[in-house]
Amino acid sequence: MMKMLLLLALIAGLNVYMPYRLGNLLGLKSKKWLYVLFAVGFVSVFAALRLVTKSGSIFVSVYYNLSTFWLGNLLFLFCVMAVFEVFNLIFRFPKKKAAYFIVALTLLIDIYAAVNAGFFKVAYVDIPVKNLSEEVKIMQISDVHLGAHRGAKYLEKIIQKTNELNPDFVVITGDIADSKSALTKNMFTPLQNLNAPSYFVSGNHDVYVGLEEIIKRLEENGIIILQNEVIETNAIKLIGLNYMKADDSVYDPHQVNAETIKDTLPQLDFGGEMPKIVIHHGPWGVEYMNEYGTDLVISGHTHAGQIFPATLMAKSRFPYLKGSKNYKGTYIYVSQGAGTFFPRMRLGTNNEINLITLKPFQSE
After folding, report:
1. Do 214 and 272 have their domain in common?
2. How far are the Cα atoms of 230, 242, 283, 350 from residue 227, in angstroms, in the given order?
3. How many domains does the chain have?
């Protein structure tokens, strides 16, 4: 909670500093309009975030995109200005030219980040697993965030690429939607074309938008929902958990229920020699999963920080930020996500779907 308050205070402070400094560089006698512009943009982000989970209106979607783009722009503007301040101590640039350069460079970064967010790549990883008789290919699709940012056409491309790679099964690890506008009749239709069995666990944004409605639409399109359930597939025990925090000692700003991983795992069947794969939206609670002999945890949620400099802050918040890690013999794989949240931008990260190949491994 304290970290969140400090972050909000920092952002608010930057919304005072940046118009003040830009106004000085431009030689403006009055900076009121700059203060108003930055203040309105800052407040709009939070209003848009609330509205987009309540209304599917096209106007709300446009408002959300504009407001969150402004947030990304602020982060990039801060970075450019910070670099400028350092060099300006040495070279003393002409003020107006410096201001124009700062604005122009920030806009170029905005454009690059926005374009980069329109594509996804495939990330490949091999994971050694005990008690596995043959290779198993799992496609992970996480954090698509259908709605205001992207729609059925983007999902179609993901499905097409997934089918080309021919996985044994697919796991959709939450946040498939983040806006009411995602709950249209045909938004989830491309999922019907998946050639492999596909399993879904919920993310926090699915709950915000309306989990019951999302589950209904997923099931209509052939997706199997796992809600704190264990199934067997491809000689593997697949354990699907609802979105929840690790335990009661943790503060989760996204908390949507009273469940915890620590309390839920004892209620599930982890018995037997088959490999055990847990799918959960958030990359935490691994220490508890390890106690039950989990071989692999597949998660998303982090977006790897999505845009610089948020990528740096994300490292301190998420010990498992992206890619593959090993905790006492339990692997955890964290996707950067197939989509974006808040600004439709990517800088320093990439949209991705993840082909995870489980390799038979014999321990000595």
Report:
1. yes
2. 9, 5, 17, 29
3. 2
